[in-house]
Amino acid sequence: MTSTIDTAHAPGMPASTWRLRSDAWEFLRFAVKRLAVESDARDAVANRDEIRRSLRALETIELYWAGFGQRYVRHIRELIEQGDAATALERIGRVVHRLRGTSVPGGTDPVLDEADLAEQQDDADPRTRFEVLLIDETTPADRDAILSEGRRLRTDADDFIYDFVIVPSADDAIAALLTNPNILACIVRPGFSDRSHQVLSGDLQETIALAHEQAAIAPAAARSSIPSVQRVLRLADTLHALRPEVDLYLVAGAHIEDLAGALTHRFRRVFRREDQLELHLSLLRRVSHLYDAPFFAAIQNHARRPVGVFHALPVGRGGSVVTSKWIRDLADFYGMNLLLAETSATSGGLDSLLAPTGAIKKAQDLAARAFGAQRTFLVTNGTSTANKIVHQALVEPDDVVLVDRNCHKSHHHALMLTGGRTAYLEAYPLDDFAFYGAVPLERIKRLLLDYRAAGRLHEVHMITLTNCTFDGIVYDPARVMSECLAIKPDLVFLWDEAWFAFAAFHPVTRQRTAMASAKRLEERLRSTAHAAAYRAQRARLFDAETGEPQDDEAWMREELIPSPDARIRVYATQSTHKTLTALRQGSMIHVYDQDWALEAEYAFHEAFMTHTSTSPNYQILASLDLGRRQVELEGFELVQRQLDLATSLAQSVARHPLLRRTFRVLTMRDLIPPEHRRTTRPMPLRDGLAAMWRAWRDDEFVIDPSRVTIEITRTGVDGDTFKHTHLMDQYGIQVNKTSRNTVLFMTNIGTSRSAIAYLIEVLVKLAERFERDRATQGLPEVRAEDDPMPPLPDFSAFAPAYAHPSGLPDGDLRDAFYDGQRRGLIEYATPDDLRERVARGEQPVSAGFVTPYPPGFPVLVPGQIVTAEVLEFMAALDTREIHGFDAARGYRLIR
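Above: the chain sequence. Below: its structure as tokens.
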């Protein structure tokens, strides 16, 4: 998460908040070391200037972290000014070693005062630390007393220890939450001021203002007429919107009983100042609740428990492995714990995934809390299955479902299974790169209005979209749902967030997740301001005499406002394993459905039973449980590191003189047409967190900054060859997606700075090789315009046998699919034969799905008319893998 300024050159906040302290202290250590070896007077002056600037920056930074603090930095400054570089270096080393997680060398520092001595002694404590933000104007003596009391309350029985971060103002509290991912709780005392006295950069100041603005949009559950209470509530709303995983506590003095009733919607508990022990116990207990992984604990207990197995699964407890002389290497490779944890029993606390009441039920409830859902279901056979579960639960035969044709194939298969009528939405094409963007809201509204005009709007039941797309294009789900509900107030939404699970744990990306959008939309619909705006717009869009809607163009021009009575019914499927910690196929279904009990619960459970194995993999379930624990406790830190590393990669490629001659980083300007964004800067996060925040607030589409798509046209090789021959075979670099002339590099929460450095090094070597090969072979530079791709083909139409007589685009995938299975109705045609038939005016009909990889979307679906555009596109593809196409016999067609 980029934030503000370079720590080496100015006070305020540095460019990358996740590494701000470590880089700043490492730099200071290096600079102080140079003091002892300075030989050139000019170098000495420059070095001392750098040290002063770094110390000034660290003095600001340390306010927002527990531990050594601003006073510690001032002591170092005094030591350097006194010429005692050796002692200063020793004190800096203590900080560096703690930040690295290594032991601190040397004995007790005689310069340290009592508080700092206690801080130094904490280094020997092996327990996991977290930090607690306390917001109040305090004196130095008050701060020392607070820190001393916190240490006094610790006992050996505590599983965790915490340190206080004490800030005086609301602005500083926001800065601390944006900067310090170790903060897991916040204590508000009403004596705080509003504005910071710190020297903060313009970007951070703007980010603070945006945070206040975001919180002000959502109406609070309760307000008070007391100005001081209003002030506390505003801050609490802001902090909760930024980091909802951080618990808020209020410590007040007089009239605590009155305050409790007004403030409990945001604060977990309200305490008097003398209730220090109760507050201490509450802080520890809350973190223990976040740490709890009930199903993982049940698996551990099962593995340790001696049992006699008279059940299925010979591999359970290693029974068929440890006595074998042929497969003992299974235990050697995976370890005995894996085998001890294997069982097909649902007793002994392990619970049943199909009807959970114990550990799995609790794990699902904790996942719902973490991801902001009303309920969550764990899935052990991938998001493909999760998509089929949701479709089967919500869609009945002949329900019309609007779906992005570029979505994952599981949605197409699900619609075929349910018998829903499929109306494909076209995403905007990116012909230069051979993949699609996303579906503009204008197209969705237009199609809904067409169904209304045809008298068929009641048949439209659900909209399915991918957020974010494989290539990182992110919708604004709140706006999409809001405007669609204004046309049909009972629509159901399925957001495929297979690649977006991480987004729930960053204050900017969270706002474009399906669950956060559903909650925000629900709050908005309840507000009086929304009701007034709805009535005013309705007066414009409906004829006063007849009550009928005005012409469609009037509806297209306005940003539509849904009725306060619209129903919020939102589902999100998530490949947790793709972007968070989980074993392969570990996925989740998140639900935010106001009509769950009446409309969906029974059908959902039946669909879950239909598609879920009666023998689910317990290790996958345990990994989902632990992955949830991780992101609640450190997700913010991991995600901001991921975003920053991806930005560093993009900047390195764009700025390196050799790399930018060979590769080109695709930005918002390449991937999002100007009519779908207000932002003009190519990579908002590179300009600072505030710039990213504005783009994600205002633009119809944005780009997930954790993905870097690089155009490779000038290498002279296609994406598939670049991926396999050059990256994987030669250097062991794995990438997931390519197109004909692009490669997608995806960072994740496990990506390291070393991995980014290695990738840059490899790209430099490859660029050198491509330039050298062109020079030695006398080859001209390859340009994209020299070998253009044909336009990406739109969905043609369903054949008349499967289309609706109204002329609207929906068709019957199920009938077409099963017709495509009947031998007497099937024929094959080679590409050449098919081109001739189409040229003669025939309309051949596809008997199945044809999906080339890349680009990975169905170019043909059952019942679709084959067109010249489809055949031209397929002929131009240079790909190893095409599902549904028989290389020997050609295309499978319905006669």
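Confidence is low (pLDDT under 50) at residues 1-15.
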